[in-house]
Amino acid sequence: MVLGVGGGIAAYKVCELLRRLTESGHGVQVVPTDAALRFVGEPTWAALSGRPVETGVWDRVHEVPHVRIGQNADLVFVAPATADIMAKAAAGIADDLLTNTLLTARCPVVFAPAMHTEMWEHPATRANVETLRSRGAVVLEPAVGRLTGADTGRGRLPDPSELFEAARLVLRRGAVAPDLAGRRVVISAGGTREAIDPVRFIGNHSSGRQGYALARTAAARGADVTLVAANVDLPDPAGARVVRVSSAVELSEAMAAERAGADAVVMTAAVADFRPVTSAASKIKKSGAAPAPIELVENPDILAGLVVDREREGLEQTIVGFAAETDDVIANGRAKLARKGCDLLVVNQVGGGRAFGTEDNQATVLASDGAVVDIPTGPKEALADRVWDLVVERLPRGAR
Q1: 3-class SS at 133?
Q2: Choice among 72, 100, 204, 332 that is catalytic
Q3: CATH fold of 2-173, please?
Q4: Class of domain 184-394
Q5: Does 336 carry a binding-site annotation?
Q6: Contacts of 47 (CB under 8 A, 6+ apart)
Q7: Would the pTM count as exceeding 0.70?
Q8: Is 322 annotated as a binding residue?
């Protein structure tokens, strides 16, 4: 693969991405811009990649590097992708080795933008991003956080570990076009917590790993991804906008706000069915007597509510639910599918070390049209990709 490095302060983070790529067995050709070499020198890139760094169109002219590098690549991954690089790529300008490589590449191309918020939000940058996406490139959404100097906002380069996952997922799909390009998807993940007092809560064992896998794979397939995360201790997936919530009521409000304009909504989060009627203002202490019973009230049925809202508004929106069951898995799944009214219900058996907190998962997907798809045990990303396959089949033709 080709790792194109743009001239931004975030170039130092790309050293960790390069290390992860080479240690996982990928052959990586680093192509930094002249500006990138002001931040990280050529010896660093050469030492980490184990091969000479390509820097100019006039080096080894007999090998025609400005054409050869792009032609031979399985993936071109640009990080940090500056506003300048994306503007040149969108306009077809080829004034250095990296932009020449982008023009000659016929493999998947991924841009991982990093810049100040004002630059990312500028209409020119937004237009360039849309142009690149319309041509089949994957342009990841930048993260929110500390930028250069004292500034904070959207424009931060995602964590190198998540950039590595994005590269790995795109490589796994090969030359397949990003079939979620132009689509907006909203995913919930994690488990809600319902406060008993400031210390204790009613919750569940959901780690959020399956929802995060769905977010990663959707971003790798070109989607505009919003992830509503409930109490998840995982790095933000590269390319996803993350909204953090805690309780079921907060999750319900966030999903109601984010679902507008979405082509697909996937409810992976494990939502507590009940919450305490009241939450104590201070920690409940032992008194020697039997504790007072905790009165519970039902939480909103978020998945069913999403379906009702879709039908009321006449939206063309694919809705996917998840059902964690301990017994009578398929029978309980069919009953839940009929009760909720969603298009797909992903049913998996939990408990006994299965599903929650693990790297692997298996499921049966029940469809409202009667289809049944079994997904064997495998990495959660593999299950996520299969779910997106089923979603893509049900989306209206043509990206908006």
Answers
A1: helix
A2: 204
A3: Rossmann fold (3.40.50)
A4: alpha beta
A5: yes
A6: none
A7: yes
A8: yes
